[in-house]
């Protein structure tokens, strides 16, 4: 990734995280964390990887339905001519690491 895409990803991560902390009800999903944002080189798409303590799949479905709203809410804070389209993915690296660790302990 180029420096520009890393900077844009960092700003999107910060702003989406802030939006989640302000607007999302933690009682349904627990703590929601934006772990990383990968932005395509042409800035057309931002892949946002999130984790949640509970109901992760349901959270991704909700975020995919609401991604237009999320994009419109965050876009004034990004100061970009063209705002990337947001795509949300459940980051399972923590669960995968635990599973691998358990397998190695056997």
Characterization of this structure:
By secondary structure, the protein is of the alpha+beta class. The protein has a single domain, classed as GMP Synthetase, Chain A, domain 3. Strands 1-2-3 form a three-stranded mixed sheet, with helices on one face. A hairpin with a 5-residue loop joins strand 1 and strand 2. The longest helix has 21 residues. It is globular, with a radius of gyration of 15 Å. The model has no long low-confidence stretch (mean pLDDT about 85).
What's the arrangement of secondary structure elements?
Blueprint: H1 3-23, H2 26-29, E1 32-39, E2 45-52, H3 56-65, H4 67-74, E3 85-90, H5 93-105
Parallel strand pairs: 2-3
Antiparallel strand pairs: 1-2
Give me some keywords for this one.
single chain; 106 residues; alpha+beta; GMP Synthetase, Chain A, domain 3; three-stranded mixed sheet; 53% helix
Computed over alpha carbons, the radius of gyration is: 15 Å
Structural class: alpha+beta
* Unreliable runs: none
Helix content: 40-55%
Describe the largest sheet: 3 strands, mixed
Number of strands: 3
Task: Look at the structure and name the CATH superfamily.
Answer: K homology (KH) domain
> Which architecture per CATH?
2-Layer Sandwich
Q: What is the percentage of strand-forming residues?
A: 15-25%
Strand order of the biggest β-sheet? 1-2-3
Cα(first) to Cα(last) distance is 38 Å
